[in-house]
Amino acid sequence: MPIAPPTARRLPAGRHLAHLILRLRRRALADAWRQLHHDRGGRVDLSAWVAPLAEAALPLYERWAAQGARDTARQLARGAVSRKAFLPARLPGPVFGFDVFNPRVVDALRDMAFYFARSTWDTCAASVELAWGSLRSELAAGLERGETLKRLGQRVRGIFDDPQKAAVIAQSEASRAVHAGELLAAQDSGVVRGKTWLVSGDACKLCLSLAALGEVPLDKPYIVQGHGPYAAVMHPPGHPSCMCSQTLVLS
Ligand SMILES: [Zn+2]
After folding, report:
1. pTM, full prediction
2. Around Cβ 3, how many Cβ atoms within 10 Å?
């Protein structure tokens, strides 16, 4: 099983996205707080923030996907050299010309950016509602109102202003976009048969089991788990903070 600590270094840390997440979350915090005060039974709706976050994040996804596509081109070139074979004539077109204006790429990256933005705000809203729920039970238990509200404020601020969580999310998204670009370019090339999961040095049980699968057909998921757009794991990351990668298998 290939253990590849250097893999982690190849993946972008996603610092720009982390800053973006924090900046927009800090702005949305005031909105969430206002909604809590206009007593709507503790419901918080942050859907107005989905498009601004997704639109701002999209150029980053495009850059990372292009990096993934270049990585594919390099892997294919290396594979061809090691086999002393020539790459098919049509290869340089789709792979080296991989661009973010290709409708298939545009759709995939837009979907990714919007799903990321929606799940970010859904998570924030759910956490605020949870904090509000526990406040209500504290008030019902007779705790002092002023003190309880102060703690609610701190908890809500902590939900939105969490640099560490933003960094983890951003790193996962960067990995997702790089590997999606890699996969799209591999599919376009027509010369990639499959893929193998390449675990990072600190890989978890799940990722070790994905690597143990060996070669997986290019268009098949490594595993299907849970629900939502990422239930079918087509490429790393396998989970938040996953630093794994994959290698392509030429046909
Ligand atoms: Zn992993």
Report:
1. 0.87
2. 13
Report residue 143 as tokens: 């705790």
Q: How far is the CA of 225 from the centre of ligand 1 (A)?
A: 15
Q: How far is the CA of 36 from the centre of ligand 1 (A)?
A: 38
The pLDDT assigned to 7 comes to: 52
CA of 211 to the centre of ligand 1 (A): 9
Rounded to the nearest whole angstrom, what is the distance from the C-alpha of residue 28 to the centroid of ligand 1? 31
| Calpha distance 139→141 (Å, rounded) | 5
Ligand 1 centre and the CA of 142: distance in Å?
46
Pairing mode, if any, of strands 223-224 and 245-250? unpaired
Q: What is the pLDDT of residues 205-240, one digit of tens each?
A: 999 999 999 999 999 999 999 888 889 999 999 999
Decide the pairing of beta strands 232-233 and 192-198: unpaired
- Rounded distance between C-alpha atoms, residue 46 and residue 35, angstroms: 10
* C-alpha span between 11 and 175 (Å, rounded): 6
Which stretches of the chain score pLDDT less than 50? 1-3, 8-9, 88-97
Summarize pLDDT for 38-61 with one digit per residue, the tens. 866 778 999 999 999 999 999 999
Question: Among candidates 159, 168, 193, 195, which has minimal Cα distance to 180?
Answer: 195
CA distance 194 to 217: 4
